[in-house]
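Service request form, structural biology core

Requester: graduate student, group of Dr. S.
Request type: structure prediction, single chain
Budget code: on file
Notes: please return the result as structure tokens.

Sequence provided:
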Amino acid sequence: MPRKKQKVDTIEEIETNIKLLCDQSNNHMKVREYDKALFGYNQALELNSTDINALISRSKCYLLLGEASKALQDAETALGEEKNNIRAIYQKAESLYYLGQFEQSLMFFHRGLRARPELASFRLGVQKTQEAIENTIGTKPRAPPSAPKSGKSRKEDDNMSKSQTTRKKPTKADLERRNARKLLGELCVDKEYLEKLLLHPDLVRADTNTENISTFAKEAVEFLNKRQEFWRQQRPCTALPNHKNLPNDAMPKWF
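Core staff response, request fulfilled:
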């Protein structure tokens, strides 16, 4: 008797099985059964080792299990299949953050923010990585306020402070900065941070053969400059105002 041919699953059947396994694992994730979820994702990736949805989901699961290195590996594999996948970009940024590679993490959070500026997760990622970098490299302490001189009366001090206030006028750089904040909104803070980051001496040491952080930062600044110029052309009324007519609340309230 002729042997029965072994049934070979079609591509559609494999994709259906992968989706079912991922859905089951997603349900386990919701109830924090991460080990069971990981088992399901592993089964799905045995059927197709390059399935992007399964890779990204397993990356998230690995992070919740505290295995950031494996999470990064899955995120990079997913990006190898689809380099602009927004979920994979986010997972790589998160994995790098939990590995303590804050500068590289910041670059990928900015990359995601440029692609999808409406997503709050990328903005929160930028904020937390900026804080982590500042805590790591330290910031310059502010000079303490000088004590008032005892030889002058309070009235003289008040008159001097008033005269200094009236004499001080906003410079062109100040007006440019205010104008940039009007045009870019919250992104202006990111632009200023990246410009300062590019000047930091420790940034050169953070560059590697695979991830040139300086290049990413320069690209982000160039993108924001182009966006600022675009909005300047769209809204000519935001051109640099005369400092005499500048309202006191020109700065956004959130800054």
